[in-house]
Amino acid sequence: MKPAPFDYVRPDTIEEACAVLAEAGGGAQVLAGGQTLMPLLALRMSQPFIMVDINRIAVLKGIVTGPEGTRIGPMTRQNEVIADAALARALPMLVTAARHVGHHQTRNRGTIGGSIALGEPAAEMPAAAVALGASVTLRSVRGSRTIKAEDMYLGPYATVLEPDELLTEISYPAWPVDSITIFREIAQRPGDFALVGLVGTVVVENGRIARAGLAWFGMGPTPIRARQAEAALLGQDIARLDGRGLAELAVADTAPFDDHHASAEYRRTVGRRIFARTLTEALNVRQAG
Amino acid sequence: MNETTPIAAGRFIGQRMPRKEDPRLLTGRGTFVDDISFPGMLHVAFVRSPIARGKITGIDLSVARGMPGVHAVYTAADLAKIKVTPLSFFLTPSEVEVPLLATDHVAYAGDPVVLIVADDRYLAEDAASVVTVDYEEEDPVVSLADARNGALVHPGTESNVSAAMGLDEDEDGEALLAGAAHLINRTVIHQRISQSPMETRGIVVSKQGAGELLVHITCQSPHMIARYLTIALGMPEYSIRVLAKDVGGSFGLKNTPWREELAVIAAALLLGRPLKWIEDRLENLISANQAREQEMTMRVGFDGQGKLLAARGEYSSNNGAYPQGADANVAVHMFMWAAYKIPYYSFYTQGWYSNTVGLAAYRGPWALESLIREAMLDIAARQLGIDPVEIRRRNLVTLADQPTATTMGIPLEDITPAECLEKLLTVLDIDAFRREQAAARQEGRHLGLGIATYIEPTGSAGSMPVMTGELAQLRVEPTGKVTATMSTHSQGHGTQTTMAQVIADRLGVPYEDVTVFEGDSAHGGFGPGAAGSRQGVIGGGASLKAAGLLQQKVKTLAAHLLNANVEDVSLEGGVIHVAGSPEMTRSLRQIAEIAYGEPARLPPGFEAGLEAQYRYTPPPMTFTSAAHGCIVEVDIETGFVKILRWISSEDCGNVINPAVVEGQIAGGLAQAIGMVLLEEAGYDARGNPIAVTFKDYLLPAISDVPDFEYVHASTPSQSEGGFRGVGEGGAIIGPPTLFNAIADALSPFGEVPLTLPLTPTRLLEVIEGRSMTSVAHAPAPVAPVVTEVAPAPVAAPAPPAAPARVDGLWKMVMASPMGGQEMKGRLATEGTTLTGTLLSDQGNQDFAGSIEGNRLKWEMKVTKPVSLTLKYDLVVEGDSISGKVKMGMFGTAKLTGERLE
Question: In this predicted complex, what is the ipTM?
């Protein structure tokens, strides 16, 4: 560990943290779980002037589940998300997705807010927030604003978060307790970022799809909501789903890229396949149960 | 041949003894180079080139020099005050000058330009960040195709070929291939690999007064590094001591120091303060030398029954700008068909310079031979409709065929790949698998079985200057405990355990009583270290020999003290017994105390103390053989590979510790899995590295590596103790085994390209039968250098119109394994008799031969670099001379020249 020099503050309140961020004028870096930040600091790929450690801000931690939905503090550790029994009933998809974030050891420190704020396009938590229709609350000395998660991401590691803003809450709308989880991640090793990832929740009423939230990760510069597929699914009889047709619609919204791990065409092809299979299997399981 | 002592599984040899290193290493008490610290020690960071190629037009050091805590900021010009000559592993200077820091131009992204010394690493990196270097960027030479067609990497060289050997055209071979019933032609493209040791490179240098240089360095042998530095520095005024107690893996990278370590030594000598440099992972993945990046085209001819007739291989490697050995990897060809009965093999092999970081060794540096050969045998089997096992049975050299020699002249006496294969088949039921495979395909599941066989030269000694024997120095201390100082060195090999087992076994003392010390050039004696799977074979033999001598000494003294016959005295479990006289039982300590402390009681002429040493030199090569089998399932939806089963059937002779042997095989196989499926340290078109952290450089994780099954087929070798080396085998035989399994699984779809790594994209292309690769991802395979050539009529050379004038002085250049060798030759003829003298740096040598028309032939024996008979076959035309020189196992080299007088 040999980062470039920085000042370090550890505020106890959101207000103090926002004041420091405002004063720093873009030179600050928020430290949450540090699982991405620490290696970047050690290699000097990240060189903030001031480090704002928010680990002591108590109100940023915790999970509150209620009839209106679920609110999660951004400093909540990923393993706390996995271990929360009420959350597992309210948003089982979120818990399933959280199990794929990094490794057990990194999830002990890594936070849900850190993952959402970083904006890695192939990460699980941003896509899960988009699929579930979550909102994020951003605070600064200028005030507070709440935006939809899907409006947060501009590109790889680029978000609408202003340099003086702090993510203070993630708010997930309520989903029926018997919602069906859609999750499939294609990664070269467990814990790696996805080559192709699909996450979603589907509500079935009387054999027909009543509500659907679906998003891709690793399929473009940001998490990508599968809007066309969501719209096409509404009202469909789950016994007569056209998996292939829906898959075409689902990948139509994506913009995958080439890198040395996989080509864009690979991501599109496998995306189509896993969409059709994951959706059908999830719905079949429900029919069988 | 050395006198050998047969050995069976003994008290400790052959047992799964717990490793002596483990309590220290597993509780974090190891001593690695970063654990070393000296009072007044300063820290080093480098400023590195962000571009692959360009001229340095300006360096501004003023801000860095003025920073508090910064002690020195050095450029190449500063370090030039200390003359350092980087050397190859064979201690020869490089073909091109290797600067410690870039001088007027940079040759790869990561090229060190400025060296900063500061109070700590933080400050050193702070200062590095404010150094400004101006570059005039140039188009880099990145790929092999660039190297063939692009600008010179090193101005002043004739071409970007760093080394070449063999025949670029081979009429005899073409004729044989043209006559074959089946001809298979494939190209393999092997990606670049980062050795990725857990402990990155690092060095701590401390000048101990005016006369001693103390170097802690993570390495493969402190003795080797001390020898290297003594020559590279050429400073007789310094005695050099090198220490490396624990090393966190090396795999070939740390065979010798390279630019950064040598620059730190030069800086420490200039500044007179202890210096530490620990490479971080970013530096390691960008600027530590790498491995592989090879392309090879092979054509193999078979007869109608699938028997090998002839083969021709053309090989190129991208050696980078400053390779640790600028060679053309002739070992690939030496071992290409070594285990197979093939009447003819010829090759052309080239290494190329490029604007990339240089190549170094990696576990099984010649492993490409097994990959291309075993993959092509399976392809041939499929094409000919023969079972993959059967095609190997028809071609492998069996024990019954030996002694024999390979096509390239390597003697074979006891290789057992065919026998390993039969042993493998006793645990791998191929018929049952084929039924399972057929049933699975009905369900849309695609299983595949891969088989590969190979041999590997291990325990090399005596044929090349640095490949020496190994030394064991043993003593029974006055306490009765046993201390060994060895020339061996562990980077995770567990030699403190295996050598202790051998010593305890042969000497007759408890395993717990033996302590092995290594890792200090001041103790023990020279050994090249963990290079070429040699330490178990040679260190084990030295331990046996020395322990035998020491036991004899103990017995002699005990017999004298107890008034017994030596033949009646035995040493077991650290206790001395006299046959038939239990009252004379003595502890080793009782005898040892007398040996050291009571000289008056010793027999006449008996040297006081209980000490013995032996430097053991084994036969030049000890072969290890193996056959592996692997079963995979390929998910045809995603192109992902799951390894279901992997069986190793290896013959590494007598096994010292099965757990250590299996650990070596498993480690090599894990690296093989990484090479076939995951790892890639390449460059983009501008020469920017594409994988600079472990987020992008994918090493196999525990989830990617199956539980391996092991069959030990232990045929004792000819070396002392019957051991054979096992360090590299997994990384050599693993890639073809896994490749063949994947190819078998996907055979209903098409042929899997021999292009590594087999990413999910590449496999889905086979499954889909269409291209899914982007331009950025995979360069199109370069067309084979030699296209199919119509068989040329083999005719005797046309007789010259007039007798050529041969007599006189000729200048000749031969493309040899060590680069182009220049020599002069004075030739004289009388009738059909040719006499002459070759004049070279190594001295003059006379020869005699024959002349027929304008064709000259003679033979010469040389001893350097190895013992060889060179067969010259040259033609004189006017004032030029050309032809070939057969160099035994090194193949054939081209020779060209012209008349001087």
Answer: 0.95
- Domain positions in chain A are 7-53, 58-173, 180-288
- Give the Cα separation of A229 and B500 in Å (integer): 67
The 10s digit of each residue's pLDDT in B557-579 is 999 999 999 999 999 999 999 99
Scanning every residue of chain B, which has its alpha carbon at the shortest distance from the alpha carbon of A44?
A: B125
pLDDT digits (tens, 9 = 90+) for B474-504: 999 999 999 999 999 999 999 999 999 999 9
Classify domain A180-288 by CATH architecture.
2-Layer Sandwich (3.30)
How is domain B291-458+622-768 classified at the CATH fold level?
A: Aldehyde Oxidoreductase; domain 4 (3.30.365)
Amino acid at B791: P
Q: Which of B281, B677, B773 lies closest to A263 in CB terms?
A: B773
Confidence tier at B236 by pLDDT (50, 70, 90):
confident
Check whether domain A58-173 has CATH 3.40.50.1980, yes or no: no
Q: Radius of gyration of chain A from Cα atoms?
A: 19
- Give residue ranges of A with CB < 8 Å to any B CB: 2-5, 39, 42-44, 186, 188-193, 195, 258-266, 269-270, 273-274, 277
Q: What residues in A contact B703, CB-CB < 8 Å? A: 189-190
CATH of domain B808-899: 2.40.128.120
Q: What is the dotted CATH code of the domain comprising B33-138+200-247+254-287?
A: 3.90.1170.50
Among B324, B331, B328, B337, residue whose Cα is nearest residue B372: B337
Contact B765, A269 (CB under 8 A): no
B-chain residues within 8 Å CB-CB of A263?
761, 772-774, 777
Partners of A262 on chain B (C-beta within 8 Å) are 759-761
Measured in angstroms, the CA of A220 and the nearest CA of chain B are apart by 16
CATH tag, A7-53: 3.30.43.10
Contact B561, B601 (CB under 8 A): yes
Q: What are phi and psi of B266, to 5 degrees?
A: -60, -40
User: May I ask the CATH architecture of the domain B22-28+462-598+609-614?
Assistant: 2-Layer Sandwich (3.30)
Amino acid of residue B241: R
Query: Which B residues in the span 503-532 are in contact with A, Cβ-Cβ below 8 Å?
Result: none
Note whether B777 contacts A: Cβ–Cβ < 8 A: yes
Q: CA B83 → CA B78, B98, B321, B693, distances in Å?
A: 11, 12, 21, 34
Search chain A and give the residue with CA nearest B701: A189
Q: Which residue has the tokens 């689902």?
A: A250
Kindly report the nearest CA distance between residue B761 and chain A, in angstroms.
Answer: 6
